[in-house]
Amino acid sequence: MLPRFPGDSPRDLSRPLESIRILVDNRLAGQRLDVALATTLTWRSRSSLRRLLDAGLVQLDGQQAPASRRVRLGDTIVVEIPPAPTPAPRADQPTAVAIVYEDAWMVAVDKPPGMAVHPSGRHLDGTLLHELHRRYRRPDDPEHDVVPRLLHRIDLETSGLVAVGLDEQFHAHVRSQFEDRLVAKSYLAVVEGRPARDDGTIDAPIVPDKASAVRLKLKTGAPGEGLAAVTHFRVLRGNGARTLLEVRPETGRTHQIRVHMASIGCPLVGDKLYGANEQWFLRQIEGSLDDAARAQLGLDRHALHSHTLRFHHPRLGREVQLEAPLPADMQALVDGPG
């Protein structure tokens, strides 16, 4: 968040940011001007700050100054913020994802299973960010060239809601809500069997599973070990063999829902790592997972869906709740006979 200039009233977050005054304090004193700006305007990239300096939109004590100028205690930096580009989705570029919500500052999509949210490892194309760049980027039209920025992530096999910022300032404010655990999230999960209770809380730390042949595998640990993790769950319906749960993670640890559900004897349907046989995970990596294993798994991916997100929308000045419905492949697991 921006520091408040002495004497200024609290800023109205529902209005676009037009200018910023920064009083150089002990933390900034002695830094180069461009470094002081990067330290304060954390949501802007170094290249965008350089463009502001080059365009003469930054003044130091009433005068333009080079990026290399050292700022002194008590100096005033004034930054004029040009209007943010206006999103103009390309009508001729249909996306491979369903748009759940869209406004001038963000978009939320219902990501299909099997699509990575960003490029990494073996997934260097066809990711969610690639799709959104095709929809919003217009390098030849600066007034409409919008860079989508992820507000959070979900796993490759997990389907459902992913929220993405279309405005730097909006992204910074809402991203901080995710980091401070102020965003309410819920997931839908289909698990093997049925929990002993229709609702409950799993409060168990998560630690590396050193006995596993899979280096990234995790497990629950004893109190005081590893990373604290809390998951709340509620039974929605089932068919005897499998159960649909609403799951609300209080913390956001890696694989948290999958680890916690497996720890109570109810692994997610289709979970090759935390299900009955971790060799399924290794065989999938090798490309040797056979039809017999797939039949035992019951689903080609783990049955987890990002269902709802609720957070404060700083530009609208109110709370918003987004929802992606239960996908057909998961619904089929609990609608039929067990």
Please give a structural write-up.
By secondary structure, this protein is α+β, with helices and mostly antiparallel strands. The chain is built from 8 helices and 16 strands. Strands 5, 6, 7, 8, 9, 10, 13, 14, 15 and 16 form a 10-stranded mixed β-sheet that branches. Strands 1-4-2-3 form a 4-stranded antiparallel β-sheet, with no helix packed on it. Strands 11-12 form a two-stranded antiparallel ribbon. The protein is elongated. The N and C termini lie far apart (52 Å).
Beta fraction: 25-35%
Radius of gyration, rounded? Answer: 24 Å
Structural class: alpha+beta
Helix content: 10-25%
The termini sit apart by: 52 Å
Shape, please?
elongated
SSE succession:
EHHEEEEEHEEHEEEEEEHHHEEH
Mean pLDDT value? 91
> How many β-strands, per DSSP?
16
Low-confidence stretches: none
Largest beta sheet, briefly?
10 strands, mixed
Instruction: Please count the helical segments.
Output: 8
